[in-house]
Design brief:
The protein has 323 residues and is mostly helical. It has 14 helices and 3 strands. A 3-stranded mixed sheet has the order 1-3-2.
């Protein structure tokens, strides 16, 4: 009788478990999980921007240092950059220096868009390229994106190297972030001369891919995963170390930026040997620029950790409300 009652108890327990797995319960689980994910994503987006606020202060400091240059110093800096560029051998590698201003931004954006499309079109099947509207469908949004990037340069708020079109984009002489010009030349050296630098440039997308991949795994892994349920092991490791793994995605970017700074400073050291004060400002600006990437990496890791916790907490709260 004792054995029989224990057996019936087991049956009742099993029935209890099965009864929880109703369509309504599944619907509630889905809603709870969705609410948790929404909270996690929101926490990540807001948290990353908030934690990275010090980077904005650094950018303002960089602009302040640039604005401290006199007209003569700015002209000397630009001329020294042009001379160093000609001696670098980069021109022979197909590198261009494009000075962007409000009057030429549209033409520059159009030229870069054509160069982009030429590369992209190699991957588009010929029968698809022949269809009416395909080229415009690719070029128009591409042009808008390029124009927006160049607009920041024309206004003096940015300078960058674009490896896809092998071009250094700088504001007009005497304006904007001129002190960053040697750093951007360092990026060109990475792509065209330095094999390690070129490899690191190709890995830069990991700064976006890694956090997204980590959060996807972490937010779809149960809070207390059990290996017997098939959610232990690697998935649990990723969830437990989400912040660190997301930050690691920034390592290639930071390494490539550091190498570009090293190359740029080395070139500037020779080009500005007769202007030690300007050289000092170049190196300081490049160091501050590198610091912003370190801050962004840290912000990404912290925001990822907070996002995963927010998802679990909100989901658990919703589950309690539904009981």
């Amino acid at each position: 009788d004792t054995d029989r009652s224990r057996g019936l108890g087991d049956v009742y327990k099993r029935q209890n478990i099965y009864s929880q797995n109703t369509p309504q319960q599944k619907q509630n689980d889905t809603k709870n999980s969705a609410a948790g994910v929404a909270a996690g994503v929101g926490t990540y987006l807001f948290g990353k921007q908030f934690i990275a606020l010090p980077a904005n202060g650094i950018m303002l400091n960089m602009k302040k240092i640039n604005s401290s240059l006199s007209a003569d110093e700015s002209n000397l800096l630009s001329d020294s950059f042009e001379t160093a560029f000609k001696k670098s051998g980069l021109e022979g590698k197909g590198v261009r220096v494009l000075r962007v201003n409000p009057s030429n931004i549209a033409d520059t954006a159009a030229s870069m868009t054509d160069d982009y499309y030429e590369q992209i079109s190699k991957k588009i099947p010929q029968n698809l390229k022949n269809l009416e509207g395909v080229e415009d469908g690719v070029k128009i949004p591409l042009y808008q994106k390029v124009y927006k990037q160049l607009d920041t340069v024309a206004k003096g708020n940015n300078a960058f190297f674009q490896p896809k079109v092998n071009s250094i984009l700088l504001p007009e002489k005497g304006t904007g972030l001129q002190l960053s010009s040697f750093h951007e030349m360092g990026h060109a050296v990475n792509k065209n001369i330095n094999k390690i630098g070129k490899a690191l440039q190709k890995l830069r997308p990991l700064q976006i891919i890694a956090p997204l991949g980590v959060m996807l795994v972490a937010m779809t892994t149960k809070e207390k995963a059990n290996s017997a349920e098939g959610e232990g092991g690697a998935r649990q490791f990723i969830k437990d170390n989400a912040g660190v793994l997301a930050t690691m995605g920034w390592i290639p970017t930071i390494a490539e930026e550091a190498l570009a700074t090293k190359n740029g400073n080395s070139i500037a050291q020779k080009a500005l040997s007769s202007a030690p004060d300007i050289l000092k400002k170049v190196k300081k600006t490049n160091g501050l620029g590198l610091a912003t990437y370190v801050i962004m990496a840290a912000a990404t890791g912290i925001a990822t950790t907070l996002a995963v916790k927010a998802k679990d907490n909100i989901q658990a709260q919703k589950e309690q409300e539904n009981k």
